[in-house]
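Q: I'm a student working through a structural biology exercise. My instructor gave each of us a protein and asked us to get a predicted structure, then write a short paragraph describing it. Mine is Tripartite ATP-independent transporter DctP family solute receptor. I'm not confident about reading structure output yet, so if you can add a plain explanation after the tokens, that would really help. Here is the sequence I was given:
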Amino acid sequence: MRFTFKSIAVSTAVVMALATSVAQAQTIRIAHVDPDEWTGSKKGAAAQIFRNIVEGETGLSVEIFPAGALGNEDELVGQVQEGLLQMAIVSGAMSKACPAASVLDIPYTFASATVAWDVLDGEFGEALGEHCLEQTGMRTLAYGETGFRNFTNNTREIRTPADMEGLKFRVQPIPLYLEMVSGLGGEPTPIAWTELPNALSTGVVDGQENPVGVIYNNGLHQLQKYMTLDGHVYAADFLVISDEFYQSLTAAEQEVVARAAVVAGNMGRSIQQWTSAEGVLAVQAEGMQIYSPTADELAMFAEKAQPAVVEFLRGELGDDAAWIDQLQAAVAAAQ
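A: Happy to help. First, here is the predicted structure for Tripartite ATP-independent transporter DctP family solute receptor. I'll explain a few features afterward.
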């Protein structure tokens, strides 16, 4: 058989094309909306340790797209579902794709982060992940943490729900948050995140609610005098992967990817706990007054906020409302 330069060139081009295709198939593209700097970014830390483990133990490569480089969380979820992106780390957007996940936002459900971890890393979290896989085509490999949300305001210290009467609070444009603040006696006011500083500065609203790290890192403590560490909603991160892509991996690769995601989720939790503790100290040092409600006071908050939210969710979820009862049972067992 005779080989010409032309045939050799064509063969070389085919081999290179195939090699490129294989290389692309072996790349996991993972995206999130947080900064990339790992010491202060929970998602940033999670993505980086995931990459290090996967690249160190397999032939797969991992590309990280932080800080919303590929879009907001809703867009990242869509890209994973469409196969344009292999993985994403998201929080609130998950409940839009898988409504059952919204039960995690029932206020005052988790007494502490460790209780939340026990629930999410146990049978309930596994079952929720399987349900969301069926609903979305995305496999939940692990859970991370965005943190507990707390109220701040510039009018008075909040110790009980009675102290919220008449105060306007900026909330996300999500019905669950409207129900929660209304149940507590406040006046919920949906305002875009980008407009929040101006709304606080001009008195359009009296207060807002966010995790401590978000409050501090965005300078909101400079516009607010009081913070109540009521931890009304615990926000979890979902480390999700396209199940179609996951099934294309070898069994050995799946094992490493799944294990790396669990380590990544725990890393994100640790960074979140660190930044939250640092944030409390930082805002206090800059003059913010912090109040930690007692167990009896937190029970008063829960008694006011939970019924309205649970009733709303039962109507929204329909047949999936059973997830509310499953979560409550899992929390009771964990506590």
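A: Here are two points you could use in your paragraph. The two ends are 76 Å apart (CA to CA). The CA atoms of residues 109 and 328 lie 8 Å apart. It's a good idea to check both against the output above yourself.
Q: Great, thank you!
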